[in-house]
Write a structure and sequence with these properties.
The complex is a heterodimer of chains A (about 400) and B (about 400).
Chain A (H helix, E strand, L loop, with lengths): L1 H19 L1 H21 L8 E7 L4 H12 L3 E6 L3 H9 L5 E5 L3 H6 L5 E7 L3 H29 L4 H8 L2 E8 L6 H31 L3 H6 L5 H30 L9 H24 L3 H18 L11 H6 L4 H14 L8 H9 L2 H5 L1 H10 L5
Chain B lengths: L1 H19 L1 H21 L8 E7 L4 H12 L3 E7 L2 H9 L5 E5 L3 H6 L4 E8 L3 H26 L5 H8 L3 E7 L6 H34 L12 H30 L8 H22 L8 H7 L2 H7 L11 H7 L3 H15 L7 H27 L5
Parallel strand pairs in B: 1-2, 1-3
Antiparallel strand pairs in B: 3-4
The chains are: A alpha/beta (about 400), B alpha/beta (about 400).
């Protein structure tokens, strides 16, 4: 009972400290909320539409104008300008005005009609991957369509039905199914990991700051004394108010993703609440672990920053893990965000039974083992070391 | 020339401070040096190859085996298993033994033989968009080739040219520009490099400013500042940061792209004329923003996480044309937004100075605006106490 009272007293002390300094409010409430709103509204469209594109139509016949009109009608493409030649269009691309352009050389219509197979081209800027590949998709589809249109017309003239014509033009057809994200929504694909990732990064940094700022301000002994120099009680008391705040922020994040934006949630909300709580606790554990590793606010913060920033690429949500070097595949187990991402994929995205995620859940819990190894070391640091820079 | 002597005095002292402070050096030297190496290592493979894929072949025909064989031979897809039914295939995907599924219907060969269109269904796990891209493009390529051959049988005795013209009355050609391999490293690293310049500078300068604030609170006056005009202090300090970052920028903007064979088709004059205002804008931005640094460390926590939103706000990933106007305005506050876009276009797309005029103007405006703010900050910090 006495232990619980001590923890409670330290928690109350910590709460007062947190309210007294702007940095806690900023990093634990303001920054995450602004970041959440930033990412979800930035990509609110899901798939970017009406990307600026150009046209070089040297042929300029009613047929080519029809093709361009059709291209403009595609959802991802917005033709903003006609350029006199390829060089001018290329210039516009270098100036960042357009992401792609369609080139129809002189005589295209004439050649097509006489069966001489002219060539049209489309150019996309691959330095900007997303708009580049979306423009590619539209322009390729348009080219197939234009070519197919001429082919179909020829076949219809010969008395083919539509089905027959398609069987001749395209005997084998591909039909793509993007499972559980049919519209290829980028926001679903990115926000589901970036938002928790930002929480993770801030948790590690704030927890380290809150622990070692006591060393810096020479209040560490006072803090530990409140727990009879028992580091476990001292830490529990200190981290309790943080844990509660982060849990609330985590729930807000989930509410935003699955309540407001209605992202796929095929598992129901509970597994994701579990996933979020596991991530919060693993991040706190890592924060304490880094404190136990190096007795310096700045170095512990630097380690956490490195770990936190690396978590984003290593979680494998944008560039998949299978294409990373082998060493990193092993190393990725040490990043909580990687496990969060995998649990999210199994649960919210694909709606699998929870047992598919058991290994990742177990590892997230195992993160608590890390600081436990270093507790007595951390206690020694706090009692004996002085802040230096 | 008293002001010049004063400025040089501040410069010399501050330079010594920066070079002796290991905390600051981590941000000014170690992070810029190592972080790009780490990134280059991460994205070593550039693109996604051999995505594990399972096949459910209900046709069991020669044609379906031919299709599967050709897909397997493509660079992007690797067939890891032939499954009896969809259940088995889905289970493999759930266990992450495969990410994509190709379903070939029972009547695949029969349909083709009897001139009916047949549909092959592709399924992709959406935990990564690059799986989707790999399986779709590989299978589409194979189907186009096979369609051509099937059509050749439809028109016996036709020449290659006739078949081709029949298949494609209008031929088309796709030309990816600049990042021709659509490599992931080529796409992300140049943006990250510019981000590193701004963020490490902000953190280092913030740490130095935080320490000054701590000293002011403890009433420790810095000797080299006594008797100096705020403008002299500002010039001295900003020149220190500028000097250090000239070296950092040469490493990040020139050496790293060459080291890792990223595309670098810049003209050095263009790069120079662009990087100078970028670094200047970063310097005065850092000094302005460092006015909120309360102590040495708090600034790190407040600024690191911002790197991720700022990378997105630059428009390198989600296109700038589709960023809501409110966030666009927000992104204009940061030199990185213009730095990233200008640098990517100069190095990868061979843009001239006139092509990046918009970014260049913005960086100069930022330089002057943040210079003004920095001056006010210094006047407030040093004006009252020490400059008498």
């Amino acid at each position: 009972m006495k232990g619980l009272n001590q923890i409670w007293a330290i928690a109350k002390r910590e709460q007062k400290r947190m309210l007294a300094r702007g940095i806690y409010t900023f990093c634990m409430v303001l920054a995450p909320i602004v970041a959440f709103l930033f990412f979800t509204t930035l990509m609110g469209e899901g798939l970017p539409s009406e990307l600026p594109a150009g046209v070089v139509d040297e042929d300029n016949t009613s047929t080519t104008r029809e093709v361009i009109r059709n291209l403009d009608a595609f959802q991802q493409t917005n033709i903003i300008e006609h350029y006199p030649d390829v060089a001018a269009a290329r210039k516009a691309m270098q100036q960042g005005k357009i992401y792609s352009f369609y080139y129809i050389p002189k005589g295209t219509t004439q050649l097509a009609v006489s069966g001489k197979q002219p060539t049209v081209s489309f150019y996309t800027v691959a330095s900007y991957l997303i708009p580049g590949s979306l423009a590619y998709r539209d322009m390729k589809m348009m080219s197939e369509y234009a070519s197919g249109g001429v082919g179909r017309a020829t076949l219809y003239a010969k008395g083919y039905t539509e089905d027959q014509a398609m069987a001749v033009l395209q005997p084998i057809k591909m039909e793509m199914h993007a499972v559980n994200n049919p519209s290829l929504n980028y926001s679903i694909y990115l926000c589901n990991t970036i938002l928790p990732g930002i929480i993770m990064l801030l948790i590690m940094q704030v927890s380290i700051y809150s622990i070692y700022v006591e060393m810096k301000e020479e209040t560490a002994r006072e803090w530990l004394a409140m727990a009879d120099n028992d580091i476990v009680k001292a830490l529990l008391g200190k981290l309790l108010p943080q844990m509660v705040t982060w849990a609330l922020m985590g729930l807000f994040c989930l509410f935003l993703l699955y309540g407001v934006w209605r992202f796929p949630l095929n598992s129901g909300i509970w597994p994701m609440i579990l996933d979020m709580f596991l991530l919060i606790n693993a991040s706190l554990a890592l924060g304490v672990f880094f404190c136990g590793l190096v007795p310096s606010l700045r170095w512990a913060l630097s380690l956490a920053t490195l770990w936190g920033v690396l978590s984003f690429p290593i979680s494998g949500f944008s560039f998949p893990m299978m294409s990373f070097p082998d060493t990193l595949k092993g190393l990725s187990w040490l990043f909580p965000l990687r496990h969060y991402f995998l649990i999210y994929v199994d649960q919210a995205l694909n709606g699998l039974p929870l047992y598919y995620s058991w290994l990742n859940i177990a590892i997230m819990i195992a993160f608590w083992g890390l600081p436990i190894m270093l507790l007595s070391r951390l206690r020694m640091f706090l009692l004996k070391y002085h802040y230096t820079h | 020339m008293k002001w010049l002597r004063n400025t040089i005095e501040v410069w010399a002292y501050e330079m010594k401070c920066a070079l002796l402070d290991e905390g600051v050096l981590v941000f000014f030297i170690v992070v810029p040096l190592l972080y790009p190496l780490l990134y280059a290592y991460l994205y070593n493979h550039e693109s996604v190859r051999e995505v594990p894929t399972v096949v459910v072949d209900n046709s069991h025909s020669q044609l379906s085996r031919e299709f599967t064989r050709r897909v397997d031979a493509s660079a992007d897809v690797k067939i890891v298993s032939h499954c009896q039914d969809m259940m088995e295939a889905e289970e493999m995907i759930h266990r992450r033994d495969a990410y994509c599924l190709i379903y070939i219907p029972k009547d695949f060969e029969k349909d083709v033989a009897e001139h009916r269109q047949t549909v092959v269904e592709l399924y992709s796990d959406m935990s990564g968009l690059l799986y989707y891209k790999a399986v779709l493009s590989s299978c589409t390529e194979v189907s186009l080739d096979m369609n051509k051959e099937i059509k050749a049988q439809l028109i016996p005795g036709a020449t290659e040219q006739q078949i081709s013209a029949f298949q494609y009355p209008i031929e088309y050609q796709y030309v990816p520009m600049f990042n021709t391999q659509s490599g992931f490293a080529t796409f992300i690293i140049p943006a990250v490099l510019m981000m590193i310049i701004q963020q490490t500078m902000v953190l280092g300068v913030g740490m130095m400013a935080g320490e000054e604030r701590e000293k002011v609170r403890k009433h420790i006056a810095e000797p080299h500042i006594i008797g100096k005009n705020p403008i002299e202090v500002l010039l001295g300090k900003s020149t220190v940061i500028f000097t250090i970052y000239v070296f950092v920028a040469v490493y990040l903007a020139c050496i790293v792209p060459m080291l890792f064979n990223l595309i670098h088709i810049w003209r050095w004059q263009t790069l120079l004329a662009f990087m100078v205002p970028f670094i200047l804008a970063c310097v005065f931005f850092s000094i302005s923003i460092s006015s909120i640094a309360h102590d040495r460390e708090s600034f790190i926590i407040m600024f690191v996480f911002l790197s991720i939103p700022l990378l997105f706000a630059s428009g390198i990933s989600w296109p700038a044309s589709n960023i809501p106007i409110f966030w666009k305005g927000f992104s204009w506050l940061f030199p990185s937004t213009f730095g990233v876009n200008g640098f990517v276009r100069i190095t990868e797309m061979g843009a001239t100075l006139e092509d990046v005029q918009h970014e260049l103007n913005a960086l100069w405006i930022q330089t002057f605006a943040y210079f003004g703010i920095s001056y006010l900050v210094y006047k407030r910090t040093y004006g009252k106490q020490l400059w008498a």
